[in-house]
Amino acid sequence: MADTEEQRKFTQTQRLKAAVHYTTGLFCQEVAEHKEVEFSKQTIAAIAETTFRQCEIFARDLEAFARHAKRTTVNAEDVKLTARRSNALFSFITQRSEELVSNNQEQKEKRKKAGGKAKKKSDAPLQSGMDEDEDSNIA
Questions:
Q1: Annotated region Disordered: where (predicted)?
Q2: Span 32-48, pLDDT tens digits
């Protein structure tokens, strides 16, 4: 049973590494076109391996931060802690986090208003045979 689990984990890791390598190749190809440079296969492989290892480190750090806070779910604060060593990355993640929070608040407010309007419509007695939408089209 343990061999099967190890085999599954190994296969999954290999598939992830292949995906990272493929994506790194695409990214290097795009950069090469814009910057008029070339990347050797060895360079692409080295970038892909470094990226994969860094992602493993980030994943372990994220799990540790959440566990330290006695949570089972990683949240935005854990991601910010992981990015704290890179000022540019930390600033980017903080900005995106704030944008997401703002967008979520706006969506909640819209849903709340839409829910309130639907409730008001159903609570109000019918005064005419026309809906509000039809009234607004008459001008």
A1: 99-139
A2: 999 999 999 999 999 99
Whether the Cβ atoms of residue 62 and residue 79 lie closer than 8 Å to each other: yes
Which residues have a Cβ under 8 Å from the Cβ of 75 and sit 6 or more positions away? 66
Torsion on CA atoms 12, 18, 23, 27, rounded to nearest 10 = 150
Task: Give 128's Cβ-side CA count (13 Å radius).
Answer: 6
The closest alpha carbon to 82, from 60, 67, 97, belongs to: 60
pLDDT, tens digit, 9 for 90 and up, residues 51-72 = 999 999 999 999 999 999 999 9
Residues 6+ apart with CB under 8 A from 90: 80, 83, 84
**Rounded CA gap, 36 and 13, in Å?**
33
What is the reported pTM?
A: 0.68
Distance CA 89, CA 96 (A): 11
